[in-house]
């Protein structure tokens, strides 16, 4: 989706300010929404929270703090999936009974869950369409769904720098359209290709892109 | 409309025994139809999820403790210091970072697949996630606000040199800048250059010099890192 989250290359966003001695969280509610989002075993595909954040209207997205976006996406996904009602979110009072038959993360499982992570690599065999050193062009796609191909690279030529192996294709999985496992590559784009002759000659931007994002140059 | 969502929420939470601050309990302007306070909404969300048996409060506390007190840039600093003192480890780190980092017992969520990129006198690497906030949690913890900011996400790919200069890192024209936009589930870590004058330092002393900012690529490692950057 060509929304404001895809902000690589935008200008006039102000200065980057590095906070001294920055705490991990800036308020108690940030701790809680972070943990809630991590703990809930939602009825939605992996990565859906990210797409949900992209669906926040642009003006709202820019106004919200980082964890306000987490609060928004988790709340919306819980309602959309039917796990909670909007009224429950508004009142803070549970109307349904205790949910049974669902896996609930326990404290003594947290360490192992973090250590195991949620790998996006796939064991499904897939033939690589490209190889290291090959020139490629990022496709000019403009989906209203989720994509990991930023606007600033679309239609631009780059070089396959390395083949990461087979990964779940998030453009598809996030929307519940299946994992579509395929090769993922690190693709090197000259800064001049992306930004024009004013960019330094030897600078580059590397993006991780899947087979479906690329075509031979 | 006399009963706003905020009123409903506040009274429900009060009834549930939750501590509502006086400021929130006081009447808000009538025109505010939606409670804007994320703290209040988060509390309501947690209350419902706990009551519905969808989350366990002890697990929430354990998650917060893990990312507030256990997982952070000290992990990444151990990886960097090891690479500085052990050439074999450095080779393994640059060829298969996930496995090399796991040798130190580090790995997991948001760092399931890692790539480490090396700074040299000729190459400077910078990590960003323009679309979101992807960041190597197992080695650096949760990302700082600047990394997640619109300003950093927007500018790092189009003007990395100008951005770095504003942050106090001016790169010579002959240094190539490589920006890594973390668009997939691969997570990146910069292996900074080892500073001069550290030949006699132990691995632990070296690790103490390595900052989060250097491992993202907005700073060099120096002999006197600022307290802020070490967090």
Can you give a write-up of this model?
The complex is a heterodimer of chains A (217) and B (231). Chain A is globular. In chain A, helix 1 (28-39) runs parallel beside helix 4 and helix 2 (48-54) packs across helix 4. Chain A is of the alpha+beta class. Chain A contains eight helices and five strands; from the N terminus they run ααααααββαβαββ. In chain A, strands 4-3-2-1-5 form a five-stranded antiparallel β-sheet. Chain A has helices spanning 28-39, 48-54, 58-63, 66-80, 86-91, 110-116, 170-173, 191-195; strands spanning 135-138, 157-167, 182-190, 204-210, 214-216. Chain A folds into two domains: 28-116, Orthogonal Bundle (Cyclin A, domain 1); 135-216, SH3 type barrels, CATH 2.30.30. Chain B is 48% helix and 10% strand. Chain B has 231 residues and is mainly alpha-helical. In chain B, helix 5 crosses helix 6 (87-95). Chain B has two domains: 5-55, no CATH class; 72-230, Nitrile Hydratase, Chain A (Alpha-Beta Complex). Chain B is built from 14 helices and four strands. Chains A and B meet through helix 1, helix 4, helix 5, helix 6 and helix 8 of A and helix 1, helix 3, helix 4, helix 9 and helix 10 of B. Strand 4 of chain A pairs parallel with strand 3 of chain B.
């Amino acid at each position: 989706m060509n929304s404001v989250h895809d902000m690589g290359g935008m200008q006039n966003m102000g200065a980057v300010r590095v906070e001294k001695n920055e705490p991990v969280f800036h308020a108690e509610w940030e701790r809680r929404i972070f943990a809630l989002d991590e703990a809930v075993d939602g009825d939605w595909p992996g990565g859906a929270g990210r797409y949900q954040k992209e669906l926040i209207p642009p003006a709202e997205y820019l106004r919200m703090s980082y964890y306000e976006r987490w609060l928004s996406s988790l709340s919306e996904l819980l309602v959309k999936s039917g796990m909670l009602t909007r009224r429950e979110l508004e009142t803070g009072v549970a109307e349904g009974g205790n949910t049974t038959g669902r896996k609930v993360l326990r404290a003594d499982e947290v360490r192992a869950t973090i250590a195991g992570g949620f790998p996006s690599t796939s064991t499904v065999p897939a033939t690589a369409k490209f190889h290291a050193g090959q020139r490629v062009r990022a496709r000019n796609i403009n989906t209203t769904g989720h994509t990991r191909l930023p606007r600033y690279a679309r239609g631009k030529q780059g070089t396959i720098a390395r083949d990461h192996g087979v990964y779940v294709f998030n453009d598809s999985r996030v929307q519940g359209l299946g994992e579509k496992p395929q090769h993922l590559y690190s693709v090197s784009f000259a800064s001049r290709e992306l930004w024009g002759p004013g960019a330094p000659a030897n600078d580059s931007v590397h993006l991780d892109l899947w087979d479906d994002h690329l075509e031979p140059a | 409309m006399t009963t706003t969502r905020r009123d409903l929420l506040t009274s429900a939470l009060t009834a549930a025994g939750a501590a509502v601050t006086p400021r929130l309990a006081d009447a808000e302007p009538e025109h505010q139809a939606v409670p804007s306070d994320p703290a209040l909404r988060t509390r309501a969300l947690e209350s419902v999820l706990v009551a519905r048996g969808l989350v366990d409060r002890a697990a929430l506390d354990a998650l917060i403790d893990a990312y507030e007190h256990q997982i952070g840039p000290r992990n990444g600093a151990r990886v960097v210091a090891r690479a500085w003192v052990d050439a074999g480890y450095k080779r393994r780190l640059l060829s298969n970072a996930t496995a090399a980092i796991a040798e130190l017992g580090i790995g997991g969520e948001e760092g399931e697949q890692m790539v480490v990129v090396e700074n040299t006198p000729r190459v400077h690497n910078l990590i960003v996630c323009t679309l979101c906030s992807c960041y190597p949690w197992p080695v650096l913890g949760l990302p700082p606000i600047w990394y997640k900011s619109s300003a950093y996400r927007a500018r790092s790919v189009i003007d990395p040199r100008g951005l770095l200069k504003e942050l106090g890192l001016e790169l010579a024209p002959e240094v190539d800048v490589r920006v890594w936009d973390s668009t997939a589930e691969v997570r990146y870590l910069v292996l900074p250059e080892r500073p001069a004058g550290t030949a006699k330092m132990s691995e632990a002393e070296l690790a103490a010099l390595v900052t989060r900012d250097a491992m993202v690529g907005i700073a060099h490692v120096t002999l006197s890192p600022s307290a802020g950057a070490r967090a």
